[in-house]
């Protein structure tokens, strides 16, 4: 359906080019300027290039359409305020924010459509447009249809990549050229060549030199931004393998135009630098307009680095990613200009009291306390106090099970070390991966000749450090397999499940893995059943109050007294949706409905349920949630095989709850029921 046209007046108005964040909606633009920025109608008329009568009509039409009802609709306000904050903070030319949750299309497709909207706005006849590659860039090209231009050139920003993927530089450039009826100019060389000498030889070829000269004339570039996760574009395109990343690119957080950047946007130089054919980072900065289209919470560090480095001046992303970027920069949500009066205003929590000594000692002191409390179950390795082993469990001929991650999730991870569960755990600093040393020490301590299985959440530091430990262990003759947990359905759309975070569903996965290993199943069989458990585990969380870090003793994000966050992370990250505080039953339904939509269980199927406190939520409230979840599942004919309720996997002192469901089959149910004994979970 075509969008409704704004009210027409008798005046011959010529609308000033509209900032991207208003999404081609002049009514929204006018409403924002009037209600949020406090401009007069005359000021707005001058700013928008309209008559005052037109502005008056726009504001009236905005009220009629429901854009404004005393204040701008909250979801529109949030997107606009985030876009404006990003624009101001990073000195961008413009910024477009789309909802993280939208229609049935995946986020990548919706980002591509938004990027196409931006490109239609900016690209002009005679332009030279450079383009990178990736899933989102190809989605943009497929969504674009703008044939009314002349003399446009579309040039690849890098050489070619592996043809095993559909979103190659060649495919993205040719599809974009087709949409613009433009001339497509390839880079007639691989993006990565075998040596620096080969690159030097190719750069002397006249054809390649001519193509690179055209690239240097680019007026604009449209590009994606890649994280460095194993399933990311930079990996799937053949730029990196694990060994190269670990050896040379540990300081990199992302990749842009095939180049690697650190957290502050600084280039990270490694052996790929002299083997890459394509635009250099300094040359990228010289392109007048640099349009980046990227989203998803897993990409927040990479996008933030690109913004800090000045490689982007037009950004297209989604609400949750935008908020994550701003939160990392210390930004707090913009208050409304004229919030409705609260008859009983509550004082916002600005400083949190904690029973700690020095913040830097808290993790080690808590761990020593846990070891004393459970000295009949666990002990630290003598030369590696962050490596915790089970006193009962590891034995010859049994697969060793090593888990781990950052502190702050107590009783994770040491709480799941014991007979029938993990044989050892490596514990990092607060919300930070353990380094390879404790992981390797745990591996050596529990290996019984049948190999070792690693299980850890899908966070970049954990992936890197566990992989490094696995490489060393394999070199020492200890076979290691790894399963990365990905149960957090809020952290990435279903089509990119491999990018999701591993959160409270870890409890079920640790239990399945421990039982499989305890039954003396071989390493390959343990890995297979744990992968199946991970694929059938779904988690969604909500927060009533944010957590607070030990050093700052301040909330990790702002949340009003009448609001709650859906889809929060376990490292204090804000959620994907903010809404008014709901009742326990309504909150349980919000979590359960998202899980069931993706799980799609049939009547008669069995599930295990975990209602988990994120730190500060008392047992009474957890049981109220469980009661509703059980009621809903019974009504659908779904059998609850086992229920767990309590603080199993926390986020410091966050007030909130997460709901995890494991979709059982016969083998998973048997393994879940097997006896175990640990500090956090004991089954007879």
From TrEMBL:
Residues 358-681 form the DhaK domain. GO terms for cellular component: cytosol. Keywords: Kinase, Transferase. GO terms for molecular function: carbohydrate binding; DNA binding; glycerone kinase activity; sigma factor activity. PROSITE patterns: DHAK (PS51481). Gene3D superfamilies: 3.40.50.1360, Dihydroxyacetone kinase, domain 1 (3.40.50.10440), Dihydroxyacetone kinase, domain 2 (3.30.1180.20), Winged helix-like DNA-binding domain superfamily/Winged helix DNA-binding domain (1.10.10.10). GO terms for biological process: DNA-templated transcription initiation; glycerol catabolic process. Pfam families: Dak1, Sigma70_r4_2, Sugar-bind. This is Dihydroxyacetone kinase.
């Amino acid at each position: 359906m075509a969008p409704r046209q704004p009210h027409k007046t008798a005046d011959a108005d010529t609308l000033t080019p509209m900032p991207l964040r208003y999404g081609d909606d002049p009514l929204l633009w006018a409403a924002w300027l009037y209600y949020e920025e406090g401009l007069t109608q005359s000021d707005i008329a001058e700013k928008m290039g309209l008559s005052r009568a037109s502005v008056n009509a726009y504001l009236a039409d905005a009220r009629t359409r429901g854009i404004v009802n005393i204040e701008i609709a909250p979801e529109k306000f949030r997107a606009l305020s985030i876009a404006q904050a990003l624009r101001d903070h990073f000195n961008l030319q413009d910024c477009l924010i789309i909802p993280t949750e939208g229609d049935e299309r995946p986020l990548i497709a919706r980002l591509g459509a938004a990027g196409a909207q931006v490109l239609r706005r900016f690209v002009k006849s005679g332009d030279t447009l450079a383009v990178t590659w990736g899933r989102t860039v190809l989605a943009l090209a497929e969504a674009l249809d703008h044939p009314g231009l002349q003399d446009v050139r579309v040039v690849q920003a890098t050489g070619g990549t592996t043809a095993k993927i559909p979103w190659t530089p060649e495919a993205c450039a040719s599809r974009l050229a087709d949409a613009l009826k433009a001339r497509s100019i390839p880079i007639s060389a691989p993006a990565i060549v075998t040596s620096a000498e080969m690159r030097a030889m190719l750069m002397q070829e006249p054809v390649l030199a001519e193509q690179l000269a055209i690239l240097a004339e680019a007026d604009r570039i449209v590009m994606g931004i890649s994280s460095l996760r194993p399933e990311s574009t930079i990996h799937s395109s053949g730029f990196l393998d694990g060994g190269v990343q670990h050896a040379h690119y540990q300081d990199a957080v992302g990749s842009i135009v095939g180049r690697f950047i650190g957290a502050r946007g600084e280039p990270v130089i490694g052996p790929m630098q002299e083997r890459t054919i394509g635009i250099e980072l300094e040359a990228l900065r010289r392109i007048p307009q640099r349009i980046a289209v990227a989203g998803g919470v897993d990409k927040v560090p990479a996008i933030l680095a690109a913004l800090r480095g000045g490689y982007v001046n037009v950004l297209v992303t989604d609400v949750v990613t935008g908020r994550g970027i701003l939160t990392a920069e210390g930004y707090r949500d913009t208050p409304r200009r004229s919030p409705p009066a609260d008859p009983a205003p509550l004082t916002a929590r600005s400083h949190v009291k904690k029973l700690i000594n020095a913040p830097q000692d808290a993790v080690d002191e808590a761990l020593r306390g846990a070891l004393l409390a459970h000295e009949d179950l666990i002990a630290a390795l003598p030369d590696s106090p962050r490596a915790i082993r089970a006193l009962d469990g590891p034995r010859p001929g049994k697969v060793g099970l090593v888990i781990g991650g950052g502190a702050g999730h107590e009783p994770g991870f040491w709480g799941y070390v014991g007979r029938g569960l993990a044989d050892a755990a490596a514990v990092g600093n607060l919300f930070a991966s353990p380094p390879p040393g404790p992981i390797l020490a745990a591996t050596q301590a529990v290996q019984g000749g049948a190999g070792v299985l690693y299980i850890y959440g899908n966070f970049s530091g954990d992936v890197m450090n566990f992989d490094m430990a696995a490489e060393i262990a394999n070199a020492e003759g200890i076979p290691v397999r790894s399963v990365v947990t990905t149960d957090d359905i809020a952290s990435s759309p279903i089509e990119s499940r491999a990018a999701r975070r591993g959160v409270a569903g870890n409890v079920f996965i640790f239990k399945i893995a421990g039982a499989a290993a305890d039954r003396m199943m071989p390493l390959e069989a343990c890995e297979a059943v744990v992968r199946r458990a991970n694929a059938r585990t779904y988690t969604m969380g909500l927060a009533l109050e944010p957590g607070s870090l030990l050093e700052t003793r301040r909330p990790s994000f702002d949340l009003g007294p009448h609001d709650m966050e859906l889809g929060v992370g376990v490292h204090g990250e804000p959620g994907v949706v903010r809404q008014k505080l709901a009742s326990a039953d309504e909150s349980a339904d919000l979590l359960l409905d998202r899980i069931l939509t993706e799980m799609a269980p049939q009547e008669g199927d069995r599930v295990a349920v975990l209602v988990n406190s994120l730190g500060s939520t008392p047992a009474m409230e957890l049981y109220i949630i469980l009661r509703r979840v059980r009621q809903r599942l019974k009504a659908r004919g779904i059998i609850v095989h086992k229920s767990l309720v309590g603080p199993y996997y926390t986020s410091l002192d966050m007030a909130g709850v997460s709901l995890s469901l494991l979709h059982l089959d016969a083998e998973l149910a048997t393994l879940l029921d097997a006896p175990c004994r640990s500090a956090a979970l004991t089954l007879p």
